[in-house]
Structure formats: C-alpha cells, structure tokens
Amino acid sequence: MIVSPSLLACDFGRLDQEVEMVNASSASWLHIDVMDGVFVPNISMGFPVISAVQAKASKPLDVHLMIVNPQNYISRCRDCGAAIVNVHQEACVHLDRTVQQIKDMGMKPAVTLNPATPVEMLRDIAPELYMVLLMSVNPGFGGQKFIENTIGKIGRLRRLLDETGSKALIEIDGGVNLATGRRLAEAGATALVAGSYIFKADDPLAAIDSLSAL
Ligand code: DX5
Ligand code: ZN
Questions:
Q1: Atom in ligand 1 nearest the alpha carbon of residue 40
Q2: Does the C-beta of 9 come closer than 6 Å to ligand 1?
Q3: Can you list the alpha helix ranges (DSSP code H) found in the chain?
Q4: How does pLDDT run across 79-136, given as a tens digit for each residue?
Q5: What's the domain count of the chain?
Q6: What CATH number is given to the structural domain containing 14?
Q7: Which residues of the chain fall below pLDDT 50?
C-alpha cells in the first residue's frame, strides 16, 4: 500500500524531526494540506512552509489544495517542488484546463472529491488523471470520524476507471487507521493518507509500517 503521512497532524515545533521520521519510514509520499479559510473552514500551511519541508524531505510531496481558485497557485506548487497536485473538483470551474496546467508544469495531476460529490463527476476527465483522491471526512480538519459511504464509493470509482480506461490510483484521506485502512485496502484503495493515526502514535514508524503492509 502507498502511504502518504499527513503533516497536518505533526508537531510543527519539531517539523525537522517529523520530516526526518517520514524520510526514515516505509511511507511512499508526504501529504501536505493547504487550506485557505474559504474553501474549507480552517487555515493550515502555505508555500514558505512547503518549501522548507521540501528541502528536508526525501519522499515526493503529495500536495492537497483545499482552496478556491487552485488554478492560480499551480506554478507556486511547482516552485515548491510538489510531485503530485490534488485539486478539488468542487473548486475548479475549468477542471480540464487545470489538470492540463499541472501536467504542463511537469507534475502529476490528481482530482479530489468531497464526500457528497459522486464519482460520475470524473467520467470525462478520468483518463487524464494520475490519481483520484476520495475524501472520507469533510475536508478542513484532522482527527475526524471516517465516513462509511467511502467504502462503496471506492467500488463505484473502480468501475468508472475501468470503463474509461483510466490508470488512476485511488487515494483515501480522512479517518484512516489500521481498522479503516484494512477495509479500504479490501475495497480497492491503492494509497492511504493518514494524519492522527501516524503522528499521534507512540511509535509513528510502526504505525506507517502497519499501513504499508496492507
Ligand atoms: C483533512 C485533510 C487530511 C487530514 C487527515 O481535511 O485533508 O489530510 O490531515 O487527518 P486524519 O488522518 O487525522 O483524519
Ligand atoms: Zn489531505
């Protein structure tokens, strides 16, 4: 399983050590949550922090933009060294253009869906995508309860990807722990984001290993 630890749950006073922990772990990527207080009711980190993290990180950055007008910030993501850029379908009026923009700038395009957005919204763009990120909580905060509908939604997304010939990975974000992670893996998830389960654990490296092994 691809694991993408969400830095949102880390101790920001020990940012260096937290990034080094992820470097030394079995995680594949490092997940960065950008919030603007408009698209979601919270504000997190911005580009100077992402650049500082990138300078220390040995894993590719999986950047999750929870912002309005994400198309205005794609070049900033590239300048910060992002490998994957996740934009919300709900935030993009011209999603095809934004996806092409991400590709043209040499990054991997991913589209994120809120819990209430049906997978059908992606039918026409699916073949262009590196990944689809399904939110299993309403975005904006770490430590929320997993929304059960996600399990069935993975099956619906899998069918849509097969029908459209898309090779997109399926990543899940929100309320992921070993118990929900097992069920998500069985349902067909190929990548898991986890914040609290990893960074609030007594042994974060072991928590990452437990998800990687799924
Ligand atoms: C929530 C963020 C998540 C968050 C997940 O809006 O997109 O990446 O950090 O946190 P946990 O794993 O604690 O639910
Ligand atoms: Zn996220």
A1: 6
A2: yes
A3: 15-23, 47-56, 74-79, 95-104, 149-164, 178-187, 196-199, 204-212
A4: 999 999 999 999 999 999 999 999 999 999 999 999 999 999 999 999 999 999 999 9
A5: 1
A6: 3.20.20.70
A7: none
